[in-house]
Amino acid sequence: YGRPNFAVDFQAIINEDWQMTEKRDIGVFVCGPKPLVKELQCLCIKINDHRSPNTVQFYLNKESF
């Protein structure tokens, strides 16, 4: 029960795609409360800031209620 560990999930995606030679855009779709959206938004920014722009990039698409 509880919220998933999104950092672990995102890292698994990165590890899966580490052999890719071309840029990969990954859409993160979230519909939920603002704290959840904020957590995922911060995680996408943090990961993208530490990765080369020619590798995996996460893009957040949100809908809040």
User: How much helix is in the residues?
Assistant: 40-55%
Q: How much strand content do the residues show?
A: 25-35%
Write down the domain tally. 1
Rounded to the nearest angstrom, the radius of gyration is 12 Å
Outline the low-pLDDT stretches.
none
Class by helix and strand content?
Answer: alpha+beta
**Straight-line distance between termini:** 22 Å
Strand order of the largest sheet: 1-2
- How much is the average pLDDT? 86
Give the number of helices.
Answer: 2
Backbone shape: globular
Strand segment tally: 2
Largest sheet: 2 strands, parallel
Give me the strand/helix succession. Answer: HEHE
Describe the structure in your own words.
It is a single chain. The chain is an alpha+beta fold. It has one domain. Helices cover 42% and strands 28% of the residues. The chain has 2 helices and 2 strands, in the order αβαβ. The chain has helices spanning 6-16, 34-49; strands at 24-32, 56-64. Helix 2 links the parallel strand 1 and strand 2 (56-64). The longest helix is centred in the middle third of the chain and has 16 residues, at 34-49. The two termini are 22 Å apart. The mean pLDDT is 86. One of its GO terms (molecular function) is oxidoreductase activity. This is Ferric reductase NAD binding domain-containing protein. Residues 1-44 form the Ferric reductase NAD binding domain. Keywords: Oxidoreductase.
